């Protein structure tokens, strides 16, 4: 397949997904939402360590905590911000301060009202030091002007999309001051029975099995949630999830709940739908990283050659059963705001790879150009296969490969703490906003020894740092988009680390589950509007 | 009898000590630590916060000090605190241990019932089609991986026939009376206990058959027949009782492996037992939790073995407590 046709394909489908938006299959239902019923949901992973992990803790606690905690705003599937706990977030003219108006008459599950004091506490004591970290470095003060108004002040101008993206993102959950004030937020035992403002209250968590949520009858959005009860259950085995769907004991599963070959079988019965929407603000990629601390991989030609040696369509079609696409640049194709096709592509071309390696000064000597250690992070089953494929692909250009597929803890240590690899296969999920989740893989300040999912390659380019710092303070949205394009071009041509495939996770739901997958990160949404057509 | 109990209890102490030291060393030899896993999951990069967490988790001290502290706290019957779950280790384990115990006991029950019956039947009808069928079944269930058996049973009995639930331990979201709850758990228990039990039943059947055939040849059996006892009574009261001894030995040995084997079955049937907890804890290098499970597990196995010893006495009065 030529690079051009694939790019065009990517753009049209991304555009089509955007255009359809709310008219998606899950919304195609007729009639008004029905009240009542119990929804049993799951996801393609395991039970969380705690129902709420203040600093993040991965997808599982994010899934369970977001039914209880809400954010100020949310991002819809067509990438527009929508009010949740805030009625408005307005920047000042110089973009150095923002005024947040809270929704009146919102109460916590224990009956206490949500006020601007809560918000100040969240901004200064929770978001800045714990959940957002460096992302909110520029935040200086938060002041409560009246019980429902807060002004956030920043050291530098802060782009509106950036701030709203943080507030609508994983770091923006609003937690109660009267419960957490004075305690260590991270180790507070209440995190196992969180109290929030959301549509569901934690009723009971049976460890090893499920968590049951009861409807919050005093929810601020009158009439919602439509469900009486929500149950999140965990299965450790994808085949068991398929069985649970078929036996009618599971209604919805997010993030690839069942084995890929089962998807076609289940959807063919018309009793289930497979939905790929609802993941754009938490877009997963599988990336390849080149350790710049090694002399060989410091050479750009070598990195480019290795990228040419990888058949990414093969990975997408064979390893992911077509539920992934070859990547282009550093951004996920579903990022319709910032994605650009105008970056260097690396089509599969073994001859070109060999020529580049020859030119870089690594000719074949005694059957091998050089030896490399390849570490494929074993936290996803697919990475095992990708690691094995890459070993073969690199051996096809006469490189001797020493492959290791360690478990989660060891992978984290080898890639992100000890930098003990030459080439690594890893994953991450990125928000629409590229700062910091995408940019921290490329900037010099993204190098933090022992901190995972950021610059582990040691790549440092002043031009890259400058572009990203410009992006951080550019408040004109159009100019900002072109700065992101500039960033993407540089990332793609320097290629210290690049996505190989953009994953397309799928949500499986019974066809009588309505109004799911309407937001940009459905798994982390409150599910207040989900209803059962039974 | 009392001496046996006391001796067994005294033996448990060095056992648990060895379990702690060995596993502590093993888990520290594995690359990566709880601290790495926790901070990377939580995306903590602030050096001040990292130091604070190092102190909270106690990993800022030398490993030998950590080990000594842990042994000291176990001696005071305190299994420590799990920062991953934000709860005391003992509480988390106690939430999940009963489910594993129920599953284990039910599986043992099924294994004994099915295995012994099949073994006896095979030995009575030795070298007939019955014997061959039972041997074939035993080989099959011994060879079939229990996770595969579990999935096949789910597909057959839960998905196609709808007789049993696909997983879990309770029907979620239903408030029932105590009696209803017991029935509900039993209903959920059938498939996992059978899938786990059949593997052990296969061994029991083979051993029981051989043992029965051996005892049946002994003189006292001929005497019993000569006395004019009925065939059934000879088999049940004379042959079977004496043939049970190797089964009891096997049972004592397999209790430990069953605790381990239930990890797989728990995963397939999402049974809320200790298996998934142990697995997650090993993967996240959460050593207080791993050690807690292993300490309680070794206690359990030791107590079960002591019980088996007592069973010997009951079955064969010739064995004296020494």
From TrEMBL, chain B:
It comes from the Bacteria. Its main location: membrane. CDD domains: TM_PBP2. The keyword DNA repair does not apply. One of its GO terms (cellular component) is plasma membrane. The chain crosses the membrane at residues 12-30, 99-121, 133-159, 179-202, 243-269, 289-313. It is found in: Cell membrane. The keyword Lipoprotein does not apply. This is ABC transporter permease. It comes from Tardiphaga robiniae.
């Amino acid at each position: 397949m030529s690079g051009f046709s694939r790019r065009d394909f990517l753009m049209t489908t991304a555009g089509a997904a955007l255009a359809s938006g709310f008219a998606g299959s899950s919304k195609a239902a007729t009639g008004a939402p029905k009240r009542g019923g119990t929804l049993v949901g799951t996801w393609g992973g395991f039970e969380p360590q705690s129902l709420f992990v203040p600093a993040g803790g991965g997808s599982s606690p994010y899934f369970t905590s977001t039914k209880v905690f809400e954010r100020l705003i949310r991002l819809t599937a067509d990438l527009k911000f929508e009010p949740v706990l805030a009625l408005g977030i307005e920047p000042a003219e110089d973009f150095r301060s923002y005024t947040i108006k809270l929704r009146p008459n919102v109460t916590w599950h224990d009956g206490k009202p949500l006020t601007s004091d809560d918000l100040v506490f969240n901004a200064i004591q929770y978001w800045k030091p714990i959940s957002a970290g460096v992302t909110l470095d520029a935040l200086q003060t938060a002041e409560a002007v009246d019980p429902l108004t807060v002004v956030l002040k920043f050291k530098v101008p802060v782009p509106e999309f950036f701030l709203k993206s943080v507030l609508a993102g994983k770091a923006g959950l609003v937690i109660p001051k009267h419960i957490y004030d004075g305690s260590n937020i991270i180790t507070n035992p209440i995190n196992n029975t969180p109290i929030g403002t959301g549509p569901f209250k934690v009723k009971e968590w049976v460890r090893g099995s499920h968590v049951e949520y009861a409807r919050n009858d005093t929810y601020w959005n009158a009439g919602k949630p439509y469900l009486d009860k929500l149950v999140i259950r965990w299965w450790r085995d994808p085949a068991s999830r398929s069985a649970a769907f078929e036996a009618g004991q599971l209604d919805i599963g997010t993030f690839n709940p069942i084995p890929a070959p089962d998807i076609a079988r289940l959807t063919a019965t018309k009793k289930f739908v497979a939905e790929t929407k609802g993941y754009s603000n938490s877009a997963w990629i599988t990336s390849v990283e080149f350790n710049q601390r090694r002399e060989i991989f410091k050479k750009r030609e070598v990195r480019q050659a290795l990228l040419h040696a990888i058949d990414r369509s093969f990975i997408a079609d064979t390893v992911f059963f077509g539920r992934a696409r070859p990547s282009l640049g550093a951004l996920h194709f579903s990022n319709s705001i910032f994605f650009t096709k105008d970056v260097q592509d690396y089509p599969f071309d073994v001859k070109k790879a060999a020529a580049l390696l020859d030119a870089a000064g690594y000719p074949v000597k005694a059957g091998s150009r050089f030896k490399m250690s390849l570490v494929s992070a074993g936290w996803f089953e697919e990475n095992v296969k990708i690691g094995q494929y890459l070993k073969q692909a690199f051996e096809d250009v006469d490189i001797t490969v020493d492959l290791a597929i360690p478990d989660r803890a060891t992978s984290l240590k080898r890639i992100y703490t000890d930098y003990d690899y030459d080439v690594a296969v890893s994953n991450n999920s990125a928000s629409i906003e590229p700062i910091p989740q995408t940019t921290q893989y490329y900037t010099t300040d993204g190098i933090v020894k022992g901190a995972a999912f950021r610059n582990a390659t040691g790549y440092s380019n002043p031009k890259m740092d400058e572009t990203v710092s410009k992006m951080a303070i550019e408040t004109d949205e159009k100019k900002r988009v072109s700065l992101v394009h500039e960033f993407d071009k540089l990332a793609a041509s320097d290629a210290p680390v690049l996505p190989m495939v953009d994953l397309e996770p799928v949500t499986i739901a019974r066809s009588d589950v309505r109004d799911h997958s309407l937001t940009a990160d459905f798994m982390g949404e409150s599910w207040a509007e989900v209803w059962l057509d039974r | 009898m009392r001496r046996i109990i006391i001796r067994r209890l005294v033996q448990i102490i060095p056992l648990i000590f060895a379990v702690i030291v060995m596993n502590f060393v093993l888990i520290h030899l594995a690359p990566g630590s709880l601290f790495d896993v926790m901070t990377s999951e939580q995306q903590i990069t602030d050096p001040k916060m990292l130091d604070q967490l190092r102190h909270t988790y106690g990993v800022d001290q030398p490993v030998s000090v950590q080990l000594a502290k842990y042994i000291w706290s176990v001696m005071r019957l305190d299994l420590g605190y799990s920062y991953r779950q934000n709860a005391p280790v003992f509480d988390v384990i106690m939430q999940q241990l009963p489910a594993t115990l129920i599953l284990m006991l039910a599986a043992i029950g099924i294994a004994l019932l099915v295995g012994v019956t099949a073994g006896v039947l095979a030995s009575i009808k030795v070298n007939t089609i019955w014997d061959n069928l039972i041997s074939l079944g035993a080989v099959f269930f011994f060879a079939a991986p229990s996770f595969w058996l579990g999935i096949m049973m789910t597909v057959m009995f839960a998905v196609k026939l709808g007789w049993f639930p696909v997983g879990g331990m309770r029907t979620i979201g239903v408030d029932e009376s105590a009696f209803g709850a017991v029935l509900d758990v039993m209903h959920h228990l059938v498939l996992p206990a059978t899938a786990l039990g059949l593997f052990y039943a296969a061994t029991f059947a083979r051993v029981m058959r051989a043992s029965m055939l051996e005892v049946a040849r002994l003189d006292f059996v001929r005497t019993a027949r000569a006395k004019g006892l009925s065939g059934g009574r000879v088999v049940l009261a004379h042959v079977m009782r004496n043939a049970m001894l190797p089964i009891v030995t096997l049972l004592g040995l397999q209790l430990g492996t069953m605790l381990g084997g239930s990890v797989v079955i728990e995963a397939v049937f999402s049974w809320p037992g200790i298996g998934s907890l142990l697995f997650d804890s090993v993967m996240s290098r959460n050593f207080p939790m791993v050690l807690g499970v292993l300490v309680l597990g070794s206690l359990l196995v030791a107590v079960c073995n002591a019980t088996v010893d007592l069973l010997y006495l009951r079955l064969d009065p010739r064995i004296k407590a020494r």
